[in-house]
Design a protein that fits this description.
By secondary structure, the chain is of the alpha+beta class. It folds into 2 domains: about 180 residues, no CATH class; about 45 residues, no CATH class. Helices cover about 20% and strands about 40% of the residues. The protein is built from 5 helices and 14 strands. α4 crosses α5.
Length: about 230
C-alpha cells in the first residue's frame, strides 16, 4: 500500500494557490519531503497568486472539480483520481486537494489519463512544435483524431452600453487528424473521415448506418474508429 501511495504522489508536482501574501510553505515542504529525493524527477513546486485583474469565466475545461479520472502509468498500473480538471491555460491536468492547493500531473510520466470519458494523451504535437496534452477523439493503428484546447481573453468594454465590463476567458477547441506522421486541421465530417479509411470505408459506413452513428459526434466517432481498427 505504501508503495502504491508513493507512486501516486510521485506523479504530481505540487502547486499552491495563494489567496494573499501569506502562503502555507510548511505544507509544501512537508509534501516534498514525503515524496522524497525522487520527487524532482516528476515535477517541481511553484506558486500561483490571484491575478491582478479579475477575469470572468475559468481556465478549466470542466465546470467544477467533482470529476473522476484514471491515470494509466503502464499497462499493469493505473491510479484512480478524484477532484480532477483540465487547465486549458497551462495545458495541464490538476487534482484539487482543498481550497488553496492542487496537484499538477507530470503528464510525460503517464501513458494516458481519462476524465469523465475524456481521454488525454501527452505527445509531440508538430503543429505547435512541442509536446502537448491532446484529447483523443478516435484512434486506430495508423490514424487518429485529436482535439486541442486553447484559451483567449475577450476584453471587456468600459462602456456598459456596448458590452460586458469585465474581461472574460473564452475556451476554444480544434480538431486535428494524424495520418502516419502527418498532422493537419480536421473537421468531423462523414466524407472526410471515410476518405482517410481507404478501402475499409464501405465497411465502416455500413457499420455506422446500421448502428445509427453520427460522424459529427465525438462519442460516435470513437466507436467508428474502434470498428475500423478491428477490420
Amino acid at each position: 500500500m505504501k508503495f502504491i501511495f508513493f507512486i501516486a504522489l510521485s506523479l504530481f508536482s505540487f502547486t499552491l494557490m495563494a489567496q494573499g501574501p501569506s502562503v502555507d510553505a510548511t505544507r509544501a515542504s512537508n509534501f516534498l519531503n514525503t515524496v522524497g529525493t525522487q520527487g524532482a524527477n516528476f515535477g517541481s513546486s511553484s506558486l500561483i497568486r490571484n491575478p491582478s485583474r479579475t477575469i470572468q469565466g475559468s481556465v478549466h475545461l470542466f465546470d467544477d472539480w467533482s470529476n473522476r479520472g484514471v491515470a494509466v502509468v503502464s499497462p499493469e498500473q493505473s491510479i484512480s483520481i478524484q477532484n480532477i480538471n483540465f487547465n486549458v491555460q497551462r495545458n495541464t491536468l490538476e487534482s484539487k486537494l482543498n481550497r488553496d492547493s492542487i496537484f499538477t500531473f507530470n503528464a510525460s510520466r503517464l501513458e494516458k489519463i481519462t476524465v469523465n470519458n475524456h481521454t488525454f494523451k501527452h505527445m509531440y504535437f508538430p503543429i505547435k512544435k512541442g509536446t502537448r496534452l491532446l484529447e483523443v477523439i478516435g484512434s486506430a493503428k495508423n490514424i487518429a483524431i485529436y482535439k486541442d484546447y486553447e484559451i483567449d481573453v475577450k476584453e471587456g468594454n468600459p462602456n456598459p452600453m456596448r458590452g460586458a465590463l469585465k474581461d472574460k476567458f473564452i475556451i476554444r477547441d480544434y480538431y486535428y487528424i494524424q495520418n502516419g506522421e502527418d498532422f493537419k486541421k480536421f473537421k468531423l465530417r462523414k466524407k472526410a473521415i471515410l476518405k482517410v479509411m481507404g478501402d475499409k470505408a464501405t465497411a465502416v459506413k455500413a457499420f455506422a448506418d446500421i448502428n445509427k452513428l453520427s460522424f459529427s459526434k465525438e462519442e460516435d466517432v470513437s466507436k467508428i474508429f474502434n470498428h475500423y481498427d478491428s477490420l
